[in-house]
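Limitations
The structure tokens in this dataset are predictions for the assembled complex, not deposited experimental models. Users should treat interface geometry with appropriate caution, especially where small molecules or nucleic acid strands are included. An illustrative entry is reproduced here so readers can see what is and is not provided.
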Amino acid sequence: MMQQLLTAVPLILIALSAAPALIIFMLPERANRTRVTINVAAAALKVGLMAAMVPLILRTDVAPELRIPFLPGTDLVLRIDSLSLLFTLLSALLWLVTTVYAIGYLAGRPNQRRFFGFFALCVTATVGIAFAGNLVTFLVFYEMLSLVTYPLVAHYGTSGALAAARVYLFYALGGGLLVLAATAWLTIVAGPVEFSPGGAEAVAALARDHPGVAIAIFGLLVAGFGVKAALFPFHSWLPRAMVAPAPVSALLHAVAVVKAGAFGLIRVIDDLYGVELAAGLGVLTPLLVVACFTVLYGSVRALLQDDIKKRLAYSTVSQVSYIALGLSMLSVVATTGGVVHLVHQGLSKITLFFCAGLVAEVWGIKKISQLDGLGRRMPLTAAAFTAGALSMIGIPPMAGFISKWQLGAGALDAGQPWVIGVLIGSALLNAAYFLPVVVRMWFRPPAEIREGPVENRTRPVLEAPATLLWPAVATACFAIAVGLFAGLPFSPLDVAGHIAERVYR
Amino acid sequence: MMAALWILSAVVPLVTAAVLAATQRARTRRSLRVASGHLNWAPAALLPAAVLTLIGPAEQFHVPWLMVGVTVGFDVVSRALVMVAVMLYGAATWAVTWRYDRRAPELVAYLLVSFVGNAGVYLAADAVSFYAAFSLMSLAAVGLVLHDRTEKARRAARVYLTLAVISEMAVLAAVLLTVHAGGFTLADAPSAVADSPRRTLIVVLLLIGFGIKTGVFGLHMWLPLAHPAAPPAASAVLSGAMVKAGVVGMFRFMPLGEAEMPVMGGIVVVLALVSAGAAVLLGVVQRDPKVVLAYSTISQMGFLGVLVGVALSAPELAAACVTAAVIYAVHHGLAKGALFIGVPVWKHHGTGARRHLVTAGMALAGLVVVGAPLSSGAVGKYAAKEAIETTSLLGVELADLLPLVATGSTVLLIRMLWLLRHTELEPHHPQDDPELPAWLGLVVLSAIVPWVLTDRWVPLNSVPGLEPVTLWNAAWPVLIGVAAGAAVWHWLPRKRPQLAGRLAAAVPPGDVLVLEERVLARAGSVANQAVDGIGAVRDRIGSGLRTVNTHLLRGVVTAQETEDRAGRWSVSGPLTLIVLGALVVAALVWGGSTGGGA
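Predicted assembly:
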């Protein structure tokens, strides 16, 4: 009975995300209240359910699983283990926060039904990716994610938005194609393979018998997931996708698309091949080098941008590669750092994007040079931005410091001390493009603002409306809290530590 | 109970800072009065920390769930220094409240946050909390430097922030390496560094990171810029407490007493002596009294650097050197702070009968700083001399070189007094505020308190007595300095007025920085040219490809046109048949001949 109940849980959670989408599509455009209620209620319910599952999954080592026959020989497998739990909890929490933000951001604008419908579908796809128990299931939801985020990126419908969305779709589907090729190849040579902590048996056997094939499949998988995870040279879609509305950029960067790519990398390296096997095949070092290069490249490009969202986009390119960096070093501490950075970077980045969207909405600020004196105009927003920026640089006690500390310690553990040079260099570059902005916000007189759609821009202090402001402040507080209280049990660092330990046998 | 006291000591200043930051927006008269009331109580936020320092036990306070585990505790290095920090920050905060202006709450807020960071650096017992406190202190100081919002302050803040970030990153790298070597707790850190195969790298990183903080020559550029730009209360804590945090960092991480590193130690001693000497030369030609005081700080930190270098090269002297350095820092901190705060006091009260009071106060504080006999500063110098015993560098006894630092300090002090004497006064300052008596009280405290602190908490084997030999040893450097300074004071403006003027204009406060800025500007323009060059190459390749593309397209179009024209040619059909027929005949003939031949 308990087993049957547990089997239904993954399905319930996916249905909880998909049902709002269907309902929203069926409601008329002007049914604002109902739509808001459904969105917020579903998001809150999901956070509650996931939080309730935490002690069960982490303490008792139960992994509720659901199998649906799909292809001959391969089932659709949905399984909740600690890694899926971590990722889904993050995405559920951030979905709730982003929903509130999007409600405020898009209030009074057209096409809300389309937006929120695809928004909910995007979250469904993310949950499916988190729960996927084998590559085929992962691929199904991965492609679904690419398709349902296209309308979100192209939401404004301008020619620029459509062009950017086309580029995004090209990259995303191209990556999906690579993953499809790799999955098919792997299934043909090794049979149906499922994720299991520390690596699947069939893949280990394949690596023993045909190491070249195993390496080639690994390369294809990493390339395919690397497109979404914005590894160099597949990162160009990300800055271009900044034409999307701010909630979409926030979601894309913090939770859904980029993190899905990184999550795929975690699954491949830790649960499909296994870190030790991958190190034995010699594929981790090239990945490490690519990740290090992307870290530095993204930071340098970010330094040269004047548009706020573009600068944040290149910063994401750089930061997500920290995850790949942590994964490709043979050390428990490094893997912990990579996995926990998934959470920490998500929280910090979403704060920064919320603030960027806020200042654009209220004051029409789109360029870095216009951020002078924001501390006087919007003190709470400026404080949230400062918290996010300090976390990106890695100043204690913010979340970013904890993951950077783990990565640095892991690099020494794994015998790769030069990675510390990359980390320090990247931190210096991050400081170079974030600290001057923070100082200007607080210590310069406010810049001249052109007249714009918001009438009260003549007021000296004009904070954003509550639905826009409180999500930003809330995520900033989370970013501080996960860093400050990282030593508590069930903190992201603790959970990441458990996940990493399972992977090493 | 102790846990509550620890938590209060950290939380109360931070909460007070937050409240003050929020009252920044006070505009109406009533809210201004409330805000001013808050401000007057602000120095009381340091009370829990003061109580903790007085009665706190030696056991460490451990919080396992904060970050990766935080441990703090008092030891012989930290207790006296924290008390000095409490008094200095309290005095600085009080000095700000003497006159309420609109941005005073912001300054006090930054002072309180810097205090938490600064005290945290002294008290940290594990590497991560040390680094966290160090970052907090460095970043909060930006608010102090930028307080006046002038162009000078912005430049100073830019330089300070750049160097502070570099120093933080160097310290982070060193801390990561130390923790990997087994030194997570600071008690284990020196031995862990000593046993590590990357020992030299760690020491170099620590030197860069903490050297920037203490103003070692070459990395000192932020000090002469930040001190004049910051308000005097902020300069007092910068010189009196924050710079000492760098020295404490060196004690906590460097393998003093655990490893013998004669080469590194020698380099450190040379750098320190160069700092001490160069600072005097550069400082004596400056025109702003606060800049002179900044160079004087660099010179005195050079003195401490010699002690660190000796400890590094001779492990048996390490314990004595560390104790001596702590004593010197304790004696130096309060008096330096009093000197800085005295600059505006002179400006406001430098006329009439009060002028003599202020001069006496400055002289007293100055004598403590240079270590005149019978002052508390002499204790530090005596301890240092005892600690380094007979160490020599390149054949010269260090014990002979060290007193010359006192000479340099005296010269700088006299220069500062001369500059003060010739600065513009602002005698319209309201005469009924507590500035003058409060500052005089601070000066007296700075002469007395260090005796008490070191007596109770930093036990010395021997204290300078009243024998004539000891007194003379302390006195002669100061006397030389006084003689030199007085001679230049009277002689130079009269005999060589132009030289005096030219010397004063020759060295701007940033000294090396101006050269470095020029080099950086040049590098920046070269980099720009390189990027433009790459862009031009890329454009040329792009246009080349486009030309090739156009040619190819033209070729295709021409081929297409030819084909069309050939298709329209009426003779093409029969012509094709004739050509085909000829080819078939030729093939048959040729095939037959070769086949027949074989």
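Some entries come with short summary sentences. For this one: Residues 333-505 of chain A form one domain.
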